[in-house]
Amino acid sequence: MGLLTNLKDSVSRVTDRLFASDDPKRIGIYGPPNAGKTTLANRIARDWTGDAIGPESHVPHETRRARRKEGVDIERNGRSVTIDIVDTPGVATKVDYKEFLDHDIEKDDAIRRSREATEGVAEAMHWLREDVDGVIYVLDSTTDPFTQVNTMLIGIIESRDLPVLIFANKIDLDEADIKRVADAFPQHETVPLSALEGNNMDEVYDKIAEYFG
Amino acid sequence: MPEATPSDSTTESQNGVQIDLISGSRMEGLRSMEKIRLILDGVRDGNIVILEEGLSPDEESKLIEVTMTEISPDEFSGIEIESYPHEDAADQSFLDRLMGRESTKKLTVIGPANQIETLHKDDQLISALVSRK
């Protein structure tokens, strides 16, 4: 891509944001499979609209299509922030249908699920390049955050100059290690939470309003 | 003399694992999709591809997307990828960042997910176990 095209794109991105500041921001919820993205999306949607976004499951790649909840009004400190939440499929570089067989899923269904999962990951990457204004990156704080997928995705988000918050999820579990998550990406703010139990959601909403409002 | 391609250096894959080390200057002349095609064609043949200077974030994003479209049951389950930045990658000027000239200098190892397993990774070493098809 030429320098002028790059410069034009950069200027366009800035002006788009300046002149569209009153429009709801589309906030993509990204992260690896099983980090708790849909649980978080449902928690936010239920807290502020009363509706859920999609089914939660311990089976990887349960979310195989990006799901959107529009017009979520979050009120903090006397002012209201409106966002559109995009719950995306967990990003991976590999999908093997045999992994689904371990969850008592029949082979035909496992193959169908894996095919849908690959389409979902491709869709999530497309959303990231084209259609989100900010990112909530969800990590399971009981697992090692130093993975190539996490590093690549954070790099992609940074290269697009998108505001990003890192959420260290599942702090209700004994094995949770918030410091390990914070140390993995020290250039970004890390917010600990349990989307399942609703722990520390006040800080979560404060930070969403601060970063995406 | 015609330029060698990774596939020219034929190795009977049954007898071993082919490793393609691709220089930064070789990749420099390619468009994004040509780079991704070069990588995925090699990986789908069961080769380990090592890039001297890696891909840009945008190219990495497209690599994931194209990989997903090519996954097929019992045939190709995706890729394993590991990389770490060269020390000089952090020395980017403000103008470079402003103009979108991201440094992509990071040694990158890519292989078929069903044949490569990362054993260890730190700032200075990637250790991988590679099995035959």
TrEMBL record, chain A:
Species of provenance: Halonotius pteroides
Residue ranges occupied by any AAA+ ATPase domain in the UniProt entry: 23-177
A cellular-component GO term for this protein: cytoplasm
Single annotated GO MF: GTP binding
Name of protein: GTP-binding protein
Superkingdom, taxonomy of origin: Archaea
Biological process annotations from GO: tRNA methylation; tRNA wobble uridine modification
InterPro entries on file: AAA+_ATPase, GTP-bd, P-loop_NTPase, Small_GTP-bd
PANTHER family linked to this entry: TRNA MODIFICATION GTPASE GTPBP3, TRNA MODIFICATION GTPASE GTPBP3, MITOCHONDRIAL
Automatic annotation (TrEMBL), chain B:
Record-linked InterPro entries: OapB-like
Domain of life per record: Archaea
UniProt-listed Pfam families: OapB
Protein name: DUF2073 domain-containing protein
Species of the source: Halonotius pteroides
